[in-house]
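User: Can you recover a sequence for this backbone? Please restate the input before giving your answer.

Assistant: Of course. Working from this structure:
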């Protein structure tokens, strides 16, 4: 029992002394609280990590397009050729939308450009659809623009 107790005591002292010296920097003298050499670098690197973690990850355009197609395909009864063509149109539109959002212009100009882009995209999509699909597409767009009204109707 005595050797085990002495080994544990030695380990405890070794770990405790290492922790105390770590608080004062390298070796504990002349690098501690009064000197900014060591502490700020560690603090800045952790702050940089926090900044990068705060940025939301961008969702790839292909994932967004796949979700849109998945949602509208059964409702519009799209065939495979229409799915491919719509995917290409939506890919181009979403990429352009991203560029417009990142452009350094006024908020009003961005909104106007996005509105024009949406109209052009809708026009391209309408060219691919037959008469029944066009009616359903218009209804889907209206439901997307006014989500509160469509929820009240479903209740």
């Amino acid at each position: 029992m005595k050797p085990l107790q002495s080994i544990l005591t030695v380990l405890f002292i070794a770990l405790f002394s290492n922790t105390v010296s770590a608080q004062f920097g390298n070796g504990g003298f002349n690098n501690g609280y009064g000197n900014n050499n060591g502490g700020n670098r560690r603090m800045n690197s952790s702050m940089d990590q926090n900044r990068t973690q705060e940025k939301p990850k961008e969702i790839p355009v292909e994932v967004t397009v796949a979700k849109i197609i998945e949602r509208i395909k059964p409702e519009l009864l799209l065939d495979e050729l229409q799915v491919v063509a719509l995917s290409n149109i939506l890919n181009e539109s979403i990429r352009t939308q991203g560029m417009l959002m990142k452009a350094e212009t006024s908020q009003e100009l961005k909104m106007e450009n996005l509105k024009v882009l949406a109209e052009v995209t809708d026009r391209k999509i309408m060219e691919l659809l037959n008469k029944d699909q066009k009616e359903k597409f218009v209804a889907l767009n209206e439901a997307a623009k006014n989500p509160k009204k469509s929820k009240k109707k479903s209740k």
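That completes the design. The chain has a mean pLDDT of 77.
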